[in-house]
TrEMBL record:
Protein name, as recorded: MerR, DNA binding
Organism: Lentzea kristufekii
Lineage summary: Bacteria, Bacillati, Actinomycetota, Actinomycetes, Pseudonocardiales
Length: 85
């Protein structure tokens, strides 16, 4: 398999998403050929679902963090503490 910067980046992203090295090794031929056995394709779909869930959870965290930042910014600007939530 050719090692290109895009392949290396993909591997890093898959690790960051919590995908095991064994699973990554199984899916790498698909990256090169575009062909996957049904069981590998099923695993790919499972990993995709996990990534979607992680994204949704991070989006919720981002909204909460934005609320905290907005309150803290208001406090800095006015000197009036935020009311407890």
């Amino acid at each position: 398999m050719p090692r290109t910067p895009s392949t290396a980046r993909l591997i890093q992203q898959l690790y960051a998403a919590g995908i095991s090295s064994t699973s990554i090794l199984e899916m790498l031929p698909c990256v090169v050929t575009g062909v996957a056995a049904p069981e590998v394709l099923a695993k790919l779909h499972g990993h995709r679902s996990s990534v979607v869930k992680q994204i949704e959870e991070l989006q919720e965290t981002l909204l909460q963090l934005d609320t905290v930042i907005a309150g803290a910014t208001k406090t800095c600007a006015t000197g009036v503490p935020c009311p407890p939530s």
